[in-house]
Specification:
This protein is of the alpha+beta class. It has one domain (7-163): 60s Ribosomal Protein L30, Chain: A, CATH 3.30.1330. 18% of the residues lie in helices and 35% in strands. It has helices at 66-79, 106-120; strands spanning 7-10, 15-18, 23-29, 33-39, 44-49, 87-93, 124-130, 135-141, 147-152, 162-163. The strands form 2 sheets. Strands 1-3-8-9-10 form a 5-stranded mixed beta sheet, with no helix packed on it. α2 links the parallel β6 (87-93) and β7 (124-130). The protein is globular and about 40 Å long.
Length: 164
C-alpha cells in the first residue's frame, strides 16, 4: 500500500535532509557514509551523505565532510524540535572502493568519524551496515526510522532488500 502523503527525496552527496513530514529518502553510497537519525518520540528522521571524514579548515565547511555533516544534521533535528536524548542513529556505507585503495581507507575513516561523533553526542547507535567492497543503495523511511538497503554489484542471487 502506497501512502500519498509520503514524499520522495533523492539525497545527493554533500547534502542532508530532515523534515517533520514523512519522506522516503534514497541515496547511493560507496566509500561515502550516510548517518540516519530518528527521533523516537516525535517520530521523524533526518539523513546526511558525506564524502570525506574531516573538514580541512581551508575551503568552505560543507556537509561534504563527516564532522560538518553530522553536526549540521543534529542541529537540524534539534531545530525541528528534537532533543538529543530522544535520537537514535544508524550508519551505512564506508565501502573499500577500489579507486581509493592504497593507504588511505576513506570508507573506514568515514565510518570512524560517524561512530565517534554519535557517541560524543550521547546518541545511541542502533544499527549499521558498513565496510566491505560493495556499494549500497538505501531508502530511509523518515516516519518509522526503518532503512531498506540493497548491495550494488552483488554477483550472487537476485538483489533483495535488507531492513534495518
Amino acid at each position: 500500500m502506497i501512502c500519498k502523503d509520503i514524499g520522495e527525496h533523492f539525497l545527493f552527496p554533500s547534502a542532508l535532509f530532515a523534515e517533520r513530514t514523512p519522506h522516503h529518502v534514497q541515496t547511493i553510497l560507496g566509500s561515502c557514509v550516510a548517518v540516519c537519525l530518528f527521533d523516537r518520540y516525535l517520530r521523524f528522521g533526518g539523513i546526511n551523505h558525506y564524502m570525506m571524514p574531516w573538514w580541512n579548515g581551508k575551503d568552505m565547511p560543507s556537509p561534504k565532510y563527516g564532522d560538518i555533516a553530522i553536526e549540521r544534521l543534529i542541529e537540524k533535528m534539534i531545530g525541528h524540535g528534537s532533543m538529543k536524548q530522544n535520537l537514535v542513529a544508524k550508519i551505512f556505507g564506508g565501502a573499500n572502493q577500489h579507486a581509493f585503495r592504497g593507504g588511505f581507507d576513506i570508507g573506514e575513516r568515514n565510518v570512524s568519524i560517524a561512530r565517534d561523533l554519535i557517541s560524543k553526542h550521547g546518541i545511541i547507535l542502533i544499527g549499521e551496515n558498513v565496510g566491505g567492497d560493495l556499494g549500497r543503495k538505501i531508502v530511509f523511511h523518515t516516519e518509522t526510522g526503518q532503512v531498506f538497503m540493497k548491495f550494488l554489484g552483488r554477483i550472487d542471487s537476485a538483489p533483495h532488500d535488507e531492513a534495518y
